[in-house]
Write a structure and sequence with these properties.
globular; mainly alpha; 181 residues
């Protein structure tokens, strides 16, 4: 049971850091669909893993999962990209009408680089072992399942943050689209 709670805590930590890092960049009143959340997680996962790995490399032992298998893990996400949903998400994150949609790939890279810096600033070295363990426990899952898990936890974190914001009379940083009833 302890491993399951540590796994959930690690996934929650990764998803919430990704969500918190991106919150400031979402356009006000834009709602994010589940497909866009998934596309964002799939796009950001390799960049975020590289960022965590860079921050944690000296904290973790040479035999730690990220130090041994980080490159392989990053490469697994390359095949699950959803360019249409990602382009839609980027349009909401950076709703600049002067940027042609064909340049959203470059904009996505700029946003990812910005988020990595925010993630690395938020990441404490004491979190590195838990994140390393979490990623090693998730390793047997296909990349699609890892993204779905990050989406699930990230969505719940965003919903909790939205409830807190509304209770304080503020608009939420990230507005998730409500499912059709």
């Amino acid at each position: 049971m302890k491993t399951n709670s540590r796994l959930f805590a690690g996934v929650a930590m990764l998803a919430s850091m990704t969500q918190v890092a991106g919150a400031a960049m979402i356009a006000p009143h834009a709602c994010i669909t589940p497909a866009e959340v998934r596309a964002g997680m799939a796009f950001l996962a390799p960049t975020m893993i590289r960022g965590v790995r860079a921050k944690c490399a000296t904290v973790l032992s040479p035999n730690a999962y990220l130090n041994r298998q980080g490159d392989r893990l990053v490469n697994r996400f390359a095949v699950i990209r959803d360019p249409v949903a990602l382009q839609s998400l980027i349009g909401k994150v950076s709703p600049n009408k002067d940027i042609p949609s064909s340049q959203n790939g470059a904009m996505a890279d700029i946003i990812a680089a910005t988020l990595v810096v925010k993630l690395q600033n938020a990441l404490k070295p004491t979190n590195c072992p838990a994140i390393d363990l979490t990623l090693s426990l998730l390793d047997p899952l296909p990349a699609e399942n890892m993204v779905e898990l990050l989406q699930l936890v990230g969505t719940e974190v965003a919903r909790g943050d939205a409830r807190k914001s509304r209770s304080r009379g503020r608009a939420p940083d990230i507005q998730l689209c409500e499912a059709a009833k």
